[in-house]
Inverse folding.
């Protein structure tokens, strides 16, 4: 009889524990929904506030350059000028037309087999860029994303929007940080073309371009 009572008590505690866990899960889901709603609210922008934004780009536009995780570039190209941002001037044409400090496409192809690469950093960069590529339709603050990888060369480029006031942000804010971090040790081959961004007031047109939720209130 005592054994039956003991078993009944243990079963009761066990069921109570399961019920408690169930209530805790409901609480977690409610908090998750609340956080989601809060994030969505913070991503809405009031155009009546005349928010100042800056549009610019990350990477190199198509045909303008690329990045490589070459570890011995200076040994193979001792005359190349690499600046403090790990950028080297890149000339798409023959080496005879390259100026001092530039690396031409012809010369790079001739000596590519002598270059050594950090494959771990390459793979890390691939993972990050594939993640962005696969989720690009869900990100705010970005447009015209382009990415490819070929024979140790990373080609990537996109426009992004930043707010002058740092209290405002978009998905592009964290993505830029992630992309810049994973490519910080790469050599950026910078071509002769390019462009610059500009500062302006956030408009409905920019909201549509950069997938922002905007309104007036």
């Amino acid at each position: 009889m005592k054994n039956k009572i003991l078993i009944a008590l243990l079963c009761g505690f066990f069921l109570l524990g399961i019920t408690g866990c169930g209530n805790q899960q409901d609480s977690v889901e409610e908090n998750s929904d609340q956080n989601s709603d809060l994030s969505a609210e913070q991503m809405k922008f009031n155009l009546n506030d005349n928010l100042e934004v800056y549009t610019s780009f990350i990477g190199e536009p198509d045909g303008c350059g690329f990045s490589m995780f070459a570890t011995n570039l200076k040994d193979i190209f001792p005359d190349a000028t690499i600046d403090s941002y790990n950028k080297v001037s890149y000339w798409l044409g023959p080496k005879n037309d390259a100026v001092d400090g530039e690396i031409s496409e012809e010369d790079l192809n001739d000596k590519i087999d002598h270059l050594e690469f950090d494959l771990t950093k390459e793979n890390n960069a691939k993972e990050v860029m594939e993640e962005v590529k696969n989720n690009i339709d869900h990100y705010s603050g970005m447009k015209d994303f382009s990415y490819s990888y070929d024979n140790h060369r990373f080609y990537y480029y996109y426009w992004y929007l930043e707010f002058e006031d740092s209290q405002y942000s978009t998905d592009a804010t964290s993505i830029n940080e992630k992309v810049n971090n994973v490519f910080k040790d790469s050599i950026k081959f910078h071509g002769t073309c390019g462009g610059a961004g500009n500062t302006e007031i956030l408009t409905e047109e920019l909201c549509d371009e950069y997938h922002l939720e905007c309104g007036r209130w």
About this structure: Residues 1-41 have pLDDT under 50 and may be disordered. The beta strands are 44-46, 52-59, 65-68, 87-91, 103-104, 142-150, 153-163, 187-190, 198-201, 213-215. The radius of gyration is 26 Å.
